Amino acid sequence: LNKKEVTEKVLVTWNQKYDFREKVRRQKSIEYAEKLTASERFRLTMKKGGKRYLEVEQLDEETGEIRRLTPHISIDEEQIALDELYDGFNVLITSEITMSDEEMLASYRSLSRIEDCFKVMKTTFDARPVYVWTKSHIHAHFLICFIALTVMRVLEHRLQRVFSPEKIQNALLSAQCRPLEKGYWEVFGNEDFLQINRLLGKDWTRQYVPLEVLRTYGK
Predict the structure, then answer these.
(1) What is the pLDDT of residues 90-119, one digit of tens each?
(2) Angle formed at CA 161 by CA 199 and CA 99, multiple of 5 degrees
(3) In this structure, are strands 184-188 and 72-75 parallel, antiparallel, or unpaired?
(4) Where do the DSSP E strands lie in the chain?
(5) Taking a C-beta distance cutoff of 8 angstroms, is the pair 13, 89 a contact?
(6) Cβ–Cβ contacts within 10 Å for residue 158, how many?
(7) C-beta of residue 200 within 8 angstroms of C-beta of residue 158
(8) Taking Cα atoms as reference points, which of 59, 54, 58, 24 lies closest to residue 42?
């Protein structure tokens, strides 16, 4: 690479469920490809999945002419057989050659959690679009989003991952309170909000809370 030698570690794994999933997907593609062997239908479709297993021959072997309007379309058995060889296999490559196999797999599997964090940032916390313009305001906007994401993940962990981020957000938004007599407040919200309090060890069966307790609720 740029006249430099790079040492890589390659880890190949096989998974039976992944193998089965690929076979099911391929069978659907083959069934679709069989419908496209009619030249007219082949030209009309824009989908590429089924076309992967088609062999299109447009050259007339006897005359050498190219038959643009009437191609011969058939199932490409060689391509199907080639794809079947790799069913269930997954290949990971890293330049971190000191990593163990288990560490490589753990890093790869953590990608889904990272992608989920981006999803929560964009949807639950509305990180995008950004409605500020100065550099400092943009940094502050994303800092708030990252802090909120951290708090959300901690809360998810404490709730034993019973609730999704969207459910937690909706539950907290449903919370309301109104003052009563003698320094007590009535706190109420939807059923998810009450269950969250129960999981956090807050016994609000009657939903009457002293003001001192309410002030420390967020902590």
Answers:
(1) 999 998 989 999 999 988 888 888 888 888
(2) 140
(3) unpaired
(4) 9-14, 54-57, 72-75, 89-94, 176-179, 184-188, 208-210
(5) yes
(6) 12
(7) yes
(8) 54
